[in-house]
Each structure stands twice: as C-alpha cells, then as structure tokens.
Fold each of these.
Amino acid sequence: MRQVRSKHLSLISTLLIFFSLMSCSEESALLSTVTVSDQFTIDVPPYLTEMNLENPDACLQYGNDLESHYLVVIRETHQKLERMGIQMGIDEYAELMIRYAQASIANAEIDPLTEGIEEVNGMEAKGYQIQGENHEGLPIFYHIMYLRSEKAFYSVTTWCTQTNKDKCQPYMAEMVRSLKEI
C-alpha cells in the first residue's frame, strides 16, 4: 500500500512540476493567430472571441465581457485616404488618431509605448498607453498601436478595466505588436 501511495505522490509531483513549468511559459505561447480577410493576422488570447463592439469602421472586434477586455482593429488604405484628399505619414496619422482617442477618454493620461517611430513587423509604428475613464466614469487602461505599411494604416486598440490591468497588460503588449500584413 505504501509503495502504491508513493508512486501516486511521485506522479502527482511530476505533474505539478510539469504544469508549473508550462504556466511560466511566455504569454505569446498562449495567443492564437487570427486572419482577417486575407489582409492581416493578429495574435489574440484564447478568452477573447469575436463580438460586436458597435464600431462600424472596425475590421476586427474581439472581446470578453467577463474579463472586461476588448480589441478593435481599424484598417484604412492609402487609396481610400487619397480619394478624400488625405496624404500623411505615420507621425501625422498617429497624432490625429491619438487626439480622437484623447477626446473620448476622460482624464486621459497618455504615455508613449514606442520611442518615436519604431518598426513592427516591417511597418512603421507609434504606440501609446492611456489611462483614463470611459463615458460612464469607469477607470480604463488602453494600449494603442498605429502602424503604416505600403498598403494601409492600422489602428490596433485594446483596453480593459483598470482593475484588470495587471492581468491583461502582458497580452495587450503582445497583441498591439503582433499585427502582420499579408
């Protein structure tokens, strides 16, 4: 009986060590790649699912109400912008878009995620972290990355409640840098 119990304890110990090691692996190993209309891919955590976040400009809308974590990607082609008489670089696009974000976030505190323009997956990129309040006064935390490729601009915005910041931030940092144009 002691030998059987000892074998069970040994097996349980081995399994606990295995699962402990697996849980310490990088967050990116837990992300799934989503392909959007043969235009781009982006990595998302498995608890986010496709949902309607009522953003008509978005080509990707994912979220999880229980986790209070959301993701939206907007893609604007250079051709579309040129038809409207708009030509700009990543600096101008990021400045314009961050002003829109700032106008919709009360008490917005904006900090850069990038040092000037960086390259992310072959695209020019500028990123920001924002803390503020939504229209209901709920404290919210955002990661936003603006990217410019040869074909389009991308706005990758992910947010969560301030109370979930520590849990969601590693995923947020991975997501905004994971977009790859196809």
Amino acid sequence: MVEFTILTDDFAQAAAAAGRLARLDALASGHSVVFMDHQGRYVEELPDARRFEIRLDPSHPREAHRIVVCEIASNAA
C-alpha cells in the first residue's frame, strides 16, 4: 500500500509563502504581528517596522497580557 501524506516539500513551501503574505497583509492593515524568531523569542512586529521581544502573561486580561521585554535593534532580528 502506498502511503499518502500532504506534508510534502511543496506543501511546506506553500504554507510558508501564505504565512509571509498574511504577515505583510496584517502589517499593511495597521495590525501588529507576533511570532517566534529563530532564537525562540516571542517578537511583536509593529506596522512601523519596530520589533519588540515580548512575554505573554495569561494571568492578565486580554488587553494587558503582552509584556515588553526590550526593543530589538532593526539589524538584530
């Protein structure tokens, strides 16, 4: 029996491209984007291109659960 999977290289590339497009669309619409970078940090990117390392604290209400640790230099992220 032939094993079938959708997790091919083509699928991974399409998913990555869709993620990049969604990020650009969100930033262009004035929304910030939160992601985990290659160093394992949570990063919030703002529409003006500034980036901040953040921590997420679920014990705070939705509006205040994001805690800024520091600003990330533009050449460091």
Amino acid sequence: MATSKDDFEVVSEDSLQFSKRGRKSQVSPELVKGISSLTKGKALVIKSMAVSPNSPKAKTEKAKHSATIRQAGKQAGKKVRIGWSPSGIPQVTLA
C-alpha cells in the first residue's frame, strides 16, 4: 500500500480530541434511589429486569442488566452483589 505525505501529520497532544467509547448508560434514577436505600441484611428484588432462563439470549440479557445494576450501584456510592433467582429475577445485596 502506497502512502503519501498527506496521509498523516504530527500534531501537538494538546490539540487532540477524543470521542467517548460505547453508548451512554441508561440507569434509571429510581434504581439508583433503590440501591441507595439498601442496608446490610436487605435485598432489592428487581422484577422489571427478569430474564427468562430458557431464552437463547438469557446470558446476554443477564450481562446487560448486571452492568446496569453495577452502574446504578456506582452512582449510589455502594458496592453491590448480584444474584439471580431460579426464575431469572436479579436480587441485589450490598457486597
């Protein structure tokens, strides 16, 4: 592959601009509030994030919901542990 002198240029690092990777997290304020109110010995059962265990996309859906829950925990300033019921409902406790 041939290159010409117009293919690249050397610039100052100060002039660089970067775009953010990925997409913006969609964490509901209600979830953050729910996790904020958690105390040791209590659990938050999130029925709206239930995943059918028999679904071919169950693993992907669980990973997506887990990431959202972890982000909500981060925004709430709490470290969370996520467990899944046999019926596919996430259950959040403090780590």
Amino acid sequence: MIFINFGRNSIAVPYSQYLSLDSGFNVNSIMLSFIANMRSVAAMIIGFTAGYLSKKFGHSHVLILGTSIGIIALIITAITNSLQLIFVGGFLMGAAEVIIYASSYAIASILIPAKMRGKLFAVYNTTFFLSWGMASTLISGPLINILINEGRSEVFAYQCAFLVGALLCIIGLIIFVVLEIKVKIKNNIDVRKLEK
C-alpha cells in the first residue's frame, strides 16, 4: 500500500501548480477550483457504492480496480493537452481515491490481528497520511527541480512526475497481486491438507 499511496499522492502538491503553469494549461483560480471539485464530486458519487462493490466483488478485487483507475488518471493527466481530459482525469482520481480507501481499510482490518489492531492501524494511517506531503517532498518535487535545472520544460518536468507516480502505483499493484496470489495458493494448500 505504501507504493500505491505514495504514487497517487506524490502529485498532490504539484497538481495545482502544473495546471496553473503559464507554459501549460494556465488555468485561473476559478477553473482550478472546478477541476479540484471534480475529484470531490467523484468521491461523493462513487463513495455511495464503494463499500457495496467491495463486499460484492471482494476487497482485493476492488483495490485492484481502484488502483488501476488511479494509474489511468495519472497517465491521462500526464499525457493530455486537453482541458476536458484533465477534468476526466480529476474525476477518475477522486473515484480511485474513495475506492482505494474503502477496500484498503477493509483489507487491513482483516489482516491485522484484533490484539494489535490499534497499534497497527496507527502505523497504517501514518503511512497513508504521510504520503500526502512526503511523497511530493521526496519524489515529485526533486524530480521536477532536477528536470527543470537540466533545461527541460516545466510542463515536461511535471508530466514526468505524474508518470513516476503512475509507475509507483504499478509497482504497488504488482506487489499486491503477487502477495494476493501467494496467499490464495497457501490457503488452497492448507484446505487440501485439512480435507485429507
């Protein structure tokens, strides 16, 4: 989850800066608020169904779906020149966010033993919420600065930061899927042993 959260949230700070760049979209504060509100609208709309989806299709499947949507949103935001697609990307970011919240907390509650739940949920929440500022400070900010200092355009530097965020999410998704497969294989082996 660290990779997924750091990847998604690494663009939290530079997102509005990117959209406001004179050499890029150059949106004013009103348009920027509309774009930001698309994320909130998605979170509200999808939020009504996230728990239902997680219960119906399984928390792991829904986490994979949410992460995949987040990856698509980051890629759309990175490669598009269309303001309309920025709105689509913003909506998808909000949808991914609420889907990941619902499923990841459910998965954590299943994996964390009851006796250690308070302590380990505190650790989980710490990594989750630190990803908002630390990911931008440790990943996106330095990357953008290095690329601009090397003479790359501002727009290119910010786009690379979004793509690196998507890459981190992909790494997190691969790790999650591999671990999920290992757990299912182990559970199937344990069930076979019990049947004998």
